[in-house]
Queue: 2 jobs
Job 1
Amino acid sequence: MTLDVDVTVRRDGFEVRAAFTAEAGETIALLGPNGAGKTTVVAALAGLLPPRSGTIRLFDRVLDDAGSGIHVPAEDRPVAVAFQDLLLFPHLSAVENVAFPLRARGLSRRKAMARADRLLGRLGVAHRAGAKPGSLSGGEAQRVALARALVAEPSLLLLDEPMSSLDARARGEIRPLVRQVLEAFPGVRVLVTHDPVEALTLADRMVILAEGRVS
Amino acid sequence: MPRRADPHVPTGRESEREAGRGAGPKAGPPRRRPPLAIVALAVAAVAFVALPLVGLVVNAPWSQAATQLTSEASLVALRLSLVVSTSAAALALVLGLPLAWVLARTTFPGRGIVRAGVVLPLVLPPVVGGVGLLAALGRRGLLGGLLGRLGIQLPFTTGGAVVAAAFVSFPLLVLAVEAGLRSLDPRFELAASTMGASRWYVWRRVTLPLLAPQIVAGVALAWARALGEFGATIMFAGNLRGTTQTLPLAVFERAQTDPAGAILLSLVLVALSLAVLVGLRGRFLSTR
């Protein structure tokens, strides 16, 4: 299996168990109502929350093994997240936001900005490259957040409720783009959503998360 | 939005607009005439603050202003004051920033005591701080021997004046920065770490920029407090013209022989303090 997850994660006294596998080139939807622990699972996959027990493996690399004390910290994982609340850095312009993961990994400013610019172009927001997140529309901000998740070419792409911050019109505009992004992404794709329709239309396979358990 | 609660808290403008829809142009519940006694006391309070300033302006010997203020003695004290308070603010920043981070981001036994100790210089009589600095860093103080062997002498030097001013002012910076760190949304830093950013990179490129307004406000407050420092300075560093005699000390000395000159020097301090206040009000301390 390319991604092999079998973990128990605890946050705020609430325990979530998640067990699923996924292949590269496949989109898995983690589907569950709000409060089912979807964000907790995202945090565990991203390396922000060490699991209480179990393992996470990605491309033959052990990212977490609670039993033997292995925990690869977030900054060393080939995992990228497009967060539910986007979390675009408010003090950086759109293109600087997208360049951030490259700059953080030591790429020169010139090269990072060039790659970020190209990616913004592919996602249709090149004209907003210099804008601060505060002045972007919901759809534009979502495109920038997607670009920031894609730019460093991770092995695992996590999209956490990519449509939830948008109104109905922007949603209709972004959905095909998310679909296109997912299809073009060569690694493992995990889409986290509470919306069964979204899961059905965007994912190849669904994993249900209910009452803190994935089955 | 960098602040945790912002998206949910309506801005002042929105709440004004909402209230405006209900009841006339003035917002809020229907207003009654405020009680006369309270208005009278409020006016008295304003007078209490304003009268000393008015006194300074009225009694200032304006005809001598140009010669007095450009006199060698005044300029020496002014220059020294700017050097000392700027150095003290810089020292407060170097010491205060890591401490604020530790207080805001870590837990350890006795943290409450540490925070109380850090705030103590704010409420302590400065002259007591000066005595304490002598007992710690004076020639016969706790660290006096060590400093002496390193060739560092603080009492009765400009360096001592900087240390005294930093001692009384750095709690302001710590409090401002700590409050800023606490109101920062921690998810920005977590998000940055998922983008491959090391802790140091996150601190430099995310935390510090988001914290910049609080740091600037803290430095400005510390600078203004250092500018007015008197008790700890005169106790620890003495009152040596050109070396430790900052503007407040010069005002004190001149008031005994030349009250008019003291008033002019005081007005210089008023102007500098007002400048800080106006600078802060516009950008950082607005009530919104």
Job 2
Amino acid sequence: MDILVCVKRVPMVGGKVLVTADGQDLDTRMSGFTVSPHEECAIEEAVQITEREGGTVTVLTLGPPEAADQLRDMLAVGAHRGVLLETDGREWGPVATAAAIVAAVGELGHTPFPLILAGNESADTGGYQVGIRVAHALGRPCLTGVKRLELAGDTIRAAREYRGVHELFEVALPAVVTVREGINLPRYPSLPGRLRAKRAEITVLRPQWQADGLRKQGLRVPVGSARRAQVLGHGTAAVPALIDVLGDLGVLPPAVRSGGDGAAA
Amino acid sequence: MSVIPDRASAVIIGAGIVGNSLAYHLARLGRTELVLVDKGPMPNPGGSTGHASNFIFPIEYSKMMMELTRDSTEQYKELGVFTESGGVEVARTQARMQELRRRCSQAKSWGIPAELLTPEGVRKLVPYLNDSVILGGCQFPTVGVVDSLRAGTLMRERAQQLGALTVLAGAEVVGIDKSDDGRVVAVRTTKGDIATDVVAICCGVWSPRIARMAGARIPLTPIVHQMISVGPIALFDGTAGEIAYPIVRDVDENMYERQHGGDMEVGSYAHRAIIVAPDDIPSIEAAVLSPTEMPFTQDDFDPQLELALELMPELLGDERAGVRYAINGLISMTPDGHPVLGETPEVPGLWSVAASWIKEGPGVGRAVAEWMSGVTPEIDIHEADIARFYPHQRTTTHVAERAREGFNKMYGIVHPSEQWESGRPVRVSPAYERERALGAMFYETAGWERPFWYESNAGLLETYADRLMDRPSEWESRWWSPIINAEHLAMRDAAGLFDLSAFAILDVTGPGAVHALQQVAVAQMQVPVGRVVYTSFLDDAGGFRADLTIMRLGPRHFRVVTGAATGMADYKWITDHLPDNGSAAVTDVTSAWTTYGLWGPRARDILGTITGDDISHAGFPFGTCKEIEVAGMTVLASRISYVGELGWELYAPMEQGAKLWDTVFGAGQPAGLVPAGIGVYGTTGRLEKGYRAYGAELDATYNLVEAGMTRPKVKEQEFVGKTAYLSQRETALAAALCTLTVDDHVSESGELRYMLGGEPVLLPDGTPLIDARGRRSYVTSAGSGPSVGKHLLLSYLPPDQAVVGTPLAVEYMGEQYPVTVAVAGSRPLFDPTNERARS
């Protein structure tokens, strides 16, 4: 099967996010760029499917020329073909992005991509829209937030979790699926993979920019958004408090949670 | 929780390998009330120690670096964190094979096991290495890996167990306070302030930033070293411990491959120099990994991937092995590659303990702890002294330029005379343009452009065609010219004019001047005005600290003349030993005086044509100085010589230097005067006379007695090192400095080869010579002796071998050459009675 996976170049950030002096961008001088963990999982999922079933994985991104780096990162872990929808530095909203992807799917032409995968949401703007808009424009069903995916002939079975409820879907292809981190464990790039990626040709298309709804006015780091740590105590005196926390997290067996004598063991 | 002490005997900033080691050694030496602060958490606060590849190769060309590495390795072993893995450097080129032979020989000088290997030999040790792309290798069986974070923790805990240390994690230093007279008085941190007289900056890549808080400069720059970790490697599955295979240095490609558990770490020094300013290093909070593990820039590493795959195709080519970790790791680089240690010249009480890597860390900590405790460090660390830098060398521009140039030479084949290209020229003599016109080949010392030889003397090659000792081998002819030897012979026949403007000149003045110098000089300084004194300075243990001349210009005025390379360190040494009562002052007047040397049998004839003053032997005896009039200028003339000829050092105000050059140069033409370079001054002329050089023969590990520089009497006044010196005079000699001549230069392949220094001296059967104090004999200086027709080597030899006529051998590039002891002690080989200089 030929699968299209959409990814997005986003800044890599540490615990504290730095904004440029003009408040328009993240300060990336001393950080780097990556794709969201959801998208890494989407690629891994696609690669595993083609390893089992045959076919190809095409990875597509819309972004500046430097976004080719992220395409090569994905090629290095098994994608076969890279497509860059090159932009000129203007801001692209989800409507325009989805339209460009749909147009590219037409232009790439030779394959209808029965399965299009995307991350559930991007790591920077978190709009949750592009996958859905692409599906809508192509008249396909769309499954979001998927944590398990199985292919059975012309249909897919997908599962996701929503507020403690497991949902199972069966959908006929062609379809669009947005996946979430945890669906698989993405592989690391091998050295030969990295070299293949370096040599791979990337198809570059230049889509037409269009104005769409949301415009960025500026960026501000919310006050008090930094991670906080709480000292539970020191030495063995901290054990009861620690057990309480672990109990709240639901990671302890019932016997311990009930506070039996062996709690500290 | 740590309680913040309001006072400390010393505050150590930085809990990497260096800070922990310093804390431990200070505690061990009896210091209490120490505080170690770091802005990060323990045990890995986020500095370079946390991402180091942690392997140690024992081989270094620098004796200091070798000793620091050796001591560190011993300390890691004692801490139980060292694993011996062995290591191999592989050669992909013939030039590298020669370099590996050179390294093998150097290893023998230092007593480091090393063995040259065929490609098959390498493959036997490293079965996954593709031996078809290499020509051979050199095995260093004592290479190993360490757990530097564990070592730091253990050292920190030991200091705490001694009750000497408080550790403050998560405390960022925000200021360093000084007293009105400029001394350190307190460190301000985000967790509170600590009063202290001593602050040690052990902050690695952040060191310049912390030093600037106190108004001092630490000349280092953070620079990126890329490293990836690839795994899981099937072959390494089940490895007990961290490493089972030797570490490979693919030196021609500036890379290494080192097993780390189930992974292979591949590191590179091949990429472009990526410099990050200390202020741009991300904070702990903003960093993606840690502040010094910057995001990997893949493009810079891609070319290395192919080379790594070529060397280890099956192992690294495994599709199931992935790049699990990849960083642009920040490391410290300095303009000359050496650490930056010691009290900063700008701020008393503020110490730099920076630019030390894992392989030197514990040794550096120990040496600096000794230094801070008033104990002479066992290892001579003058080449790492922060005081070595001149102001221009502390600028960020200079540091960045040299770091950029030096980065790709990390694994390079660096000739011992190789010159820097960046950041030149900085300091030039008034005669610089004239020297350029004469085709001077300039070498740089401490920023000064110094003519090494002059192409204008090429005509002399014919004159002295049969005495040039030309060097057919490319390696020894590199950074050398037979013109040096021709200039030498022309000087011995007529006269040479040397530009010595790079000399550092320090005036010591005041009513206490004589006393101030008396305290540091071995020689008697209570001498008549007009006397020139040649003397050494010693450290407390009686090792050499400096070697220089001092002119007495007046009852309260002395002028110290020393080498450019050591000028700033000597300046600090004298300053540190000035009397407390302010009765003497030292001033750096280097930039005020230009210096030329005029030497040779015709020197008096030449000078006589341009001065009316009495320069006869009786009127201007050897070892004296006085002002003379030369062509309307007042010139300070000093009758001494480092090349063993009649003549003078001539000092003129810098702005009159060009005129003095023209005057002397013009006057000398009829007598056959030639411009002569430092090749003659520093090597050929010096070696024929057996004159010792600081940093080569003279360092802290040898003494005046062994160097053959004792005088019949020791002055009655006190001076630094006197007690040690007196005891050295009573102790049986362990080694004596000798001059050796090379008897046969023909290599196994029939080429004439000439040693350049550093080579091991052996018994004729190849046995290394080791003296009673465990020191190995090696060549401290080497060079042509054109007037004696021999290639000359200086070396300390055990007493049994320090006998004229003793046949020995020297190993060069892996082959042995016969040599003979020509001089034992300080008697010159050329003109043994010094008639020429004293005529």
